[in-house]
Amino acid sequence: MDTLKPLEEKTAEILVPRAFEWWTFLALAADLSSEIEHLDFVSRFSAESRVVIVDGGLLPETIHLLKDKALVIVILWDGYQSYREREDILTRVARLARRVELRIVGEPAATDIDSVFRCRPLFVQQPEIYNRETIFSAGIGKVSFSRPLAKTALRCRSNLISFKVLFQLFHEKKVHEYLRTKYVFCGHSGLTTLQRYSADYGVGSSCMPNGIADSFCELELVAQWTRALHRKKGHWANQIVIRALLRFIALRTLATHKGDDLFLNIFPDTNINAYQAGMLFKSHIFLDFGGSHGDETVYPRTADLLFLNRKVIRFDRRVSTTDLWNVRVNDRASIGGFLRRYQETVLSVLDGGRTCVSRNTQLVQPSGKS
Asked: 96 with 89: CB under 8 angstroms?
């Protein structure tokens, strides 16, 4: 497989679910060093196409169209987990196409990925690139769609979503909550991830809550997961579980102590897309707990926030992750100490953290606490 020869064909056909078109465009438009000069979003690959970009979930229905392609770029939205789930079909693609690259959102775990694949993050890790002027000036001219008016909808996306969100706020009687709050978080709390992996890790359902507002013993939850993580040390999903656990405890802590200041929209509630509603939430500060599958600086959610020039508080999980691994698993006092320190850290960020300003974004880290 030739991975070094420059591409002769500069147009790429792109096939992704419509829900992922925006993030795909955002990532590719920010890749200013790409060999690809034109992006054509299609509903089906043509026989003549030489370079294609495809969502990993669509490989089963498109693999027969990938034979002898000069380059196939596969997008994996869930990090190494996506690779594990699709390893067999990716190997088949590698036998069909002349060159296969993986573009990953989340931790690539590159040492565990077959060397036949070139592997890199989907999103360029340079926050300053993701501003409206750069994205639209660099990207909108080189993109086309098979659907009529899709390009116009792309330009107007933020305004269209704003009107939808405004309707949701009125319909769900959340306008007062929107007006009185200072911080906002919408998305997964981490609980669904913990529930998904609980059987694999042998964590009993008795300690698992059903929602962020449920009454349960936080100490027992952390104790059970800490013991499970140590039993499965080296397991590929450990970092996913830790990220989910830290996010869930952080959001529960903030909801308990800062609920009056916090606009929360937690899955499985109907999604309120505050992250792409450019006309709304301009006065709010967005809370960012990092991606579910990696610790990269830029992933879909942060790319949206950078694009709209939002103020962001990002919680750095690295120190707390190390702290969690260092607890004595059979010592409830040690586990309780970790839980208390972590909760104090989370609250200290909102109560007066140290602010680092980066272009388009404010990243706030805790001061003086681990």
From this structure: no
